[in-house]
Design brief:
Blueprint: H1 4-19, H2 55-75, H3 82-95, H4 99-117, H5 125-149
Pfam family, one: DUF2385
Keywords: Signal
Signal peptide: 1-26
């Protein structure tokens, strides 16, 4: 197992988390409509799951990113997709063909998103504070993973 792509992705995530309050709203990108007549891609080869010593931290980071994604979009004028895209890149690089790990990380992101969606329907001061705290927690988690498990 190599840590290179994961560490690189975590460093980028750390920078995103640390600087999110000062960055400009991400440009909207629309996914091209999918043609349902296209042939289905062959199913990916499933590789034996290889748990890593930092899986629990990654699960928590995924949950934090889901929370930040919801709260940021609740409180900005233009919706941004930075956090969801960051999570998708992290999942793609970290889980490769390990379907169970992919499912756990996706579920954690969705859990973080839904937790705040069930509480906040408008941007309030507590929502802003929660977003700042979760962003700080995410930056700390990413830094710890890199410091402890990076090469």
């Amino acid at each position: 197992m190599t840590f290179g792509p994961t560490i690189t992705r975590l460093i980028v995530t750390t920078l995103l988390l640390a600087t999110a309050a000062t960055t400009a709203v991400a440009q909207k990108t629309a996914a091209p409509p999918q043609d349902k007549t296209q042939a289905q891609a062959p199913a990916p080869v499933v590789v034996e799951e290889k748990p890593t010593p930092y899986d629990q931290r990654l699960i928590r980071l995924a949950e934090v990113l889901g929370s930040v994604h919801y709260l940021r979009n609740l409180c900005v004028k233009e919706p941004e997709d930075v956090w969801r895209r960051s999570m998708q890149e992290l999942i793609d690089k970290e889980t490769a063909n390990e379907e169970k790990r992919r499912e756990r990380m996706t579920a954690a992101f969705n859990r973080g998103y839904r937790t705040f969606a069930s509480v906040y329907t408008t941007c309030t001061q507590p929502a802003i504070v929660a977003e700042q705290r979760y962003r700080a927690e995410g930056a700390t988690l990413a830094s710890e993973i890199v410091a402890r498990f990076g090469n």
